[in-house]
UniProtKB/TrEMBL annotation:
Pfam families: 2-ph_phosp. Its EC number is 3.1.3.71. The gene is comB. SUPFAM superfamilies: ComB-like. HAMAP family: ComB. This is Probable 2-phosphosulfolactate phosphatase. InterPro entries: ComB-like, ComB-like_sf. Keywords: Hydrolase, Magnesium. Belongs to the ComB family.
Length: 233
């Protein structure tokens, strides 16, 4: 079994793809499902999200870390954790994370969403589903690799290496080095470029929330969908 870490999304095929966008799309996606959402739909554009609005459907997303005008929610996991989404479908569109999920959906037979909060459960699910290769795809921010995502990829890789034998690539070696040499999860996320952006926007609670490791067993799995990806726990 091969294990690969892509520091940014690209279209190389894998049988299991784990999409990581710790600050904050995949952390928030896990939280929506934890708070009762029936499903998530991840669209490629805000316009596609507005088209899906309807009975029992709410929209969540951001640009530059701030809520998209006209959406019901931003992309804050802390905000999501305070709501009850039972019976709701949440449509998500974010700057980088939903796009990375679409790349994953285009290149993976099975696509999972992972953050630090569900890292162990995501690794366990990926290991159970994979037959040839697991690719951990870091969303990054605006086309640049994100320290927080590479750190989370290292956490996922450590869990996977404890679950079985893998041939690993240089991306995995780099992610493991980041994980093993880093300070605490919170210090790592806070020092990341996007973590700094969120702190400067007064969204430090989201950074603290996203820094929790393996507190959730919810693993969003993307299902086939026309033009959007949906996720089920
Ligand atoms: C992203 O998709 O890049 C992130 O979710 C951005 C954010 O929520 O701040």
């Amino acid at each position: 079994m091969r294990l690969r870490v892509d520091l940014l999304p690209h279209g190389q095929y894998s049988d299991v793809v784990i999409v990581v966008d710790v600050l904050r799309a995949t952390t928030t996606a896990v939280t929506y499902l934890e708070r009762g959402a029936d499903a998530l739909l991840l669209t490629a554009t805000p316009e596609a999200a507005f088209v899906l609005r309807g009975e029992g459907v709410v929209l969540g997303g951001e640009r530059g870390g701030l809520p998209i005008p006209g959406f019901d929610f931003g992309n804050s996991p802390v905000e999501a954790a305070a709501q009850n989404f039972t019976g709701k479908t949440v449509v998500m569109n974010t700057t980088n994370g939903t796009g990375a999920a679409h790349t994953g959906a285009a290149t993976g037979k099975h696509v999972l969403l992972a953050a630090l909060t569900n890292a162990h459960a995501a690794a366990r699910r990926a290991r159970a589903m994979a037959t040839e290769e697991i690719a951990i795809v870091c969303a990054g921010t605006d086309g640049r690799a994100g320290l927080e995502d590479v750190y989370a990829a290292g956490v996922l890789a450590e869990y996977l290496l404890a679950m079985g034998t893998f041939t690993i690539d240089d991306g995995t070696r780099m992610a493991l080095t980041v994980r093993r040499s880093a300070d605490s999860p919170l210090e790592t996320l806070s020092s990341a470029t996007h973590g700094q952006t969120l702190l400067n926007l007064g969204l430090g609670d989201d950074v603290r929330y996203a820094a929790q490791i393996s507190t959730s067993t919810v693993v969003p799995v993307l299902l086939e969908g026309e033009g959007q990806s949906s996720a089920d726990a």
